């Protein structure tokens, strides 16, 4: 169930049942197995592997957030709070990458003791 | 019945904000949103520095993918047991809730045990916190994640103890389990990102 009004009180009684949770867990386990198998494919294009791995990680992330954390069923205000955090994290990541490319594609070398 | 209604009214007054949503749950989501920034920074730092190795082993030389895959599977399954604990307490099945809470804590401990073993192996193979920027960024990132899992285990055990003494039997019990559950699932999704980006994505 979704709410059209973010100010509408949540209705926690509409969470899915254990069978849905088990199905989601099975999907997560299968996707993880595919991820690991993909990283072992010899001679595959690195770009293809990276794209595939990121898409599958995103799918797992979304599945856990929507079903286990109930973002699909709870008040949309919670979803907005969390998505704001994720977007800010991606902005931080973009700033890091910009810094990297501004330095000519390499982070500074720092050696330990 | 009237007493139950009065208790529910007090509960609503205590936990619902002017927005109509549970304020403790909203606080937890705001906290988790801020944690996204925290882990986003750590993962970004790792990605910047993972190929900057002058001394010590490189990432692909020391990562044991099959071993970490099993750890990841354990943590994923702990999310399932956590949500089953919530489903149990929402049905007022307190025994089921206790079993699933304990199972979640046990799976978390297995994950942490695996991480301690991995860290020990890495140190024996020459990768320490100060060996290289790769080592520093790796240990700080995965160490902070491990610390979060450890905090989660303590909270799960606290919930289990509260349940044993009947402190989760009231109308507020499911909300307490749900709040800790949100934290636990967040720790799981952070590991989903770390496992893929750190361990599986090929390095140069």
Describe this structure in words.
The complex is a heterodimer of chains A (113) and B (204). With 113 residues, chain A is an all-alpha fold. Helix content of chain A is 64%, strand content 0%. Chain A is flat, with a radius of gyration of 19 Å. Residues 1-13 of chain A have low confidence and may be disordered. In chain B, helix 2 (23-49) packs antiparallel against helix 6 (133-164) and helix 2 runs parallel beside helix 7. Chain B is built from seven helices and no strands. Mean pLDDT of chain B is 89; it is low at 1-10. Chain B is mainly alpha-helical and 204 residues long.
Give the key terms.
heterodimer, A: 113 residues, disordered N terminus, B: 204 residues, mainly alpha
Shape of chain B: elongated
The mean pLDDT of chain B is: 89
Order of helices and strands of chain B: HHHHHHH
The largest inter-chain interface, given as chain pair and residues per side, is: A-B, 63 and 67 residues
Q: What is the CATH first-level class name of chain B?
A: Mainly Alpha
- Give the CATH superfamily of chain B: Cytochrome c oxidase, subunit III, four-helix bundle
Question: Quaternary status of these chains?
Answer: heterodimer
Annotated CATH architecture of chain B = Up-down Bundle
Q: Indicate the CATH topology of chain B.
A: Four Helix Bundle (Hemerythrin (Met), subunit A)
Topology, please?
The complex is a heterodimer of chains A (113) and B (204).
Chain A: H1 18-39, H2 46-68, H3 76-102
Chain B: H1 2-15, H2 23-49, H3 59-62, H4 65-90, H5 94-124, H6 133-164, H7 173-200
Helix pairs in contact in B: 2-6, 2-7, 4-5, 4-7, 5-6, 6-7
What's a quick, concise take on this entry?
The complex is a heterodimer of chains A (113) and B (204). Helix content of chain A is 64%, strand content 0%.
């Amino acid at each position: 169930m979704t709410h059209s009004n973010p100010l509408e009180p949540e209705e926690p009684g509409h969470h899915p049942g254990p069978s849905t949770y088990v199905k989601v867990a099975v999907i997560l386990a299968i996707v993880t197995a595919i991820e690991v198998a993909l990283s072992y494919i010899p001679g595959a294009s690195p770009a293809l592997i990276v794209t595939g791995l990121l898409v599958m990680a995103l799918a797992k992330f979304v599945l856990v957030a929507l079903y286990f954390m109930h973002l699909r069923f709870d008040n949309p205000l919670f979803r907005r709070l969390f998505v704001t955090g994720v977007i800010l994290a991606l902005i931080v990541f973009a700033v890091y990458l910009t810094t990297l490319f501004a330095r000519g594609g390499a982070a500074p070398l720092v050696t330990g003791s | 019945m009237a007493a139950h209604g009065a208790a529910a009214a007090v509960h609503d007054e205590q936990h619902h904000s002017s927005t109509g949503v549970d304020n403790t749950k909203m606080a937890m989501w705001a906290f988790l949103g801020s944690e996204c920034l925290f882990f986003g920074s750590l993962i970004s730092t790792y990605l910047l520095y993972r190929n900057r190795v002058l001394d010590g082993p490189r990432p692909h030389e020391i990562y044991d993918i099959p071993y970490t895959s099993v750890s990841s599977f354990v943590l994923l399954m702990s999310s399932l047991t956590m949500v089953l604990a919530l489903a149990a307490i929402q049905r007022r099945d307190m025994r089921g809730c206790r079993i699933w809470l304990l199972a979640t804590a046990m799976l978390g401990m297995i994950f942490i045990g695996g991480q301690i073993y991995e860290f020990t192996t890495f140190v024996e193979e020459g990768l320490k916190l100060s060996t290289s920027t790769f080592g520093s960024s790796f240990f700080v990132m995965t160490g902070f994640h491990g610390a979060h899992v450890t905090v989660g285990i303590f909270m799960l055990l606290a919930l289990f103890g509260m349940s044993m003494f009947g402190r989760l039997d009231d109308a507020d019990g499911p909300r307490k389990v749900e709040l800790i559950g949100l934290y636990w699932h967040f720790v799981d999704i952070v590991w989903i990102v770390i496992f893929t980006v750190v361990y599986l994505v090929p390095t140069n």
